[in-house]
Amino acid sequence: AQSVTQPDIHITVSEGASLELRCNYSYGATPYLFWYVQSPGQGLQLLLKYFSGDTLVQGIKGFEAEFKRSQSSFNLRKPSVHWSDAAEYFCAVGADNYGQNFVFGPGTRLSVLP
Amino acid sequence: DAGVIQSPRHEVTEMGQEVTLRCKPISGHNSLFWYRQTMMRGLELLIYFNNNVPIDDSGMPEDRFSAKMPNASFSTLKIQPSEPRDSAVYFCASSLVPDGSGTFGSGTRLTVV
Q1: Fewer CB within 10 Å, N- or C-terminus of chain A?
Q2: CB atoms within 10 A of CB B59
Q3: Which of A32, A42, A45 minimises the CB distance to B100?
Q4: Residue B98 C-alpha from the chain's centroid
Q5: Residues 44-63 of chain A whose Cβ lies under 8 A from any Cβ of chain B
Q6: How far apart are CA A103 and CA B4, in angstroms?
Q7: Which residues of chain A from 72 to 101 reach within 8 Å of chain B, CB to CB?
Q8: B103 → chain A, closest CA residue
Q9: Number of neighbours of residue B52 by Cβ within 10 angstroms
Q10: B42, closest residue in chain A (CA to CA)
Q11: In B17-60, where does DSSP find H-type helix?
């Protein structure tokens, strides 16, 4: 069975600074990887996903993530953080073609300082 | 489109009572998912429908939980009888295909006392 870890429970960055949120997964085959963002009181919104092909994936809101098979990682990055990026971020791994059998990481809460 | 609509937004009920959560997916979406989110367990996929048919219900915790999708525009998640440990936020999501790109509703916060 697959599993996901997000080593950082809470990260604080200053507005305009760069951001990297870590995600490590465990799965024996090629994973299907996702990053979601959850604003307070809201559902999740898909930022980006990786199924195959180019290992650097571009998403919405200026986010990108890089799949590194050798490190079992799928870290999320953004070059310049905006105050509106403050939210909870979840990495998820799917096990099959359609990715519906998701396992979510515990989440990383991002705070942004003005 | 109004997005995925869940009702109620908040539900407080007494232990032993039946609870029904409702979800209206985005029109045209063929896949519907129910998730539960708690502090202890994080986000868990409960059940997944495709074209109104339950495909994977392995995440449903107990027989007290049941989900139906009588048509393409409506789904329910029922808990009978409810217990305090069922307290959580329940999310519904829908997508055109089950590829992880689902749109989530705002959730129903359930409190069982």
Answers
A1: C
A2: 17
A3: A32
A4: 16
A5: 44-46, 49, 51
A6: 22
A7: 90, 92, 94, 98-101
A8: A45
A9: 15
A10: A106
A11: none
Stated length of chain B = 113
CA atoms within 13 A on the CB side of A1: 5
Angle at A14 between CA A11 and CA A19, to 5 degrees: 55
Q: In the structure encoding, which two tokens stand for residue B83, read together?
A: 């217990």
- Which of A32, A45, A98 lies closest to B104 in CB terms? A45
Percent share of chain A, pLDDT over 90: 68
- Token readout for A54 is 């180019």
Question: For residue A49, which residues of chain B lie inside 8 Å, CB to CB?
Answer: 99-101
Distance of residue A47 Cα from the nearest chain B Cα, in angstroms:
9
Q: Which chain B residues touch A92 with a CB distance below 8 Å?
A: 43, 100
Amino acid at A110: L
Nearest to B43 among A90, A94, A98 (CB): A90
Q: Residue B92 in contact with residue B106, Cβ under 8 Å?
A: no
Q: How many Å apart are CA A75 and CA A60, to the nearest integer?
A: 15
What is the sign of the dihedral through the CA atoms of A66, A103, A90 and B35?
A: positive
Q: For residue range A63-103, what is the model confidence (pLDDT) as tens digits?
A: 999 999 999 999 999 999 999 999 999 999 886 655 456 78
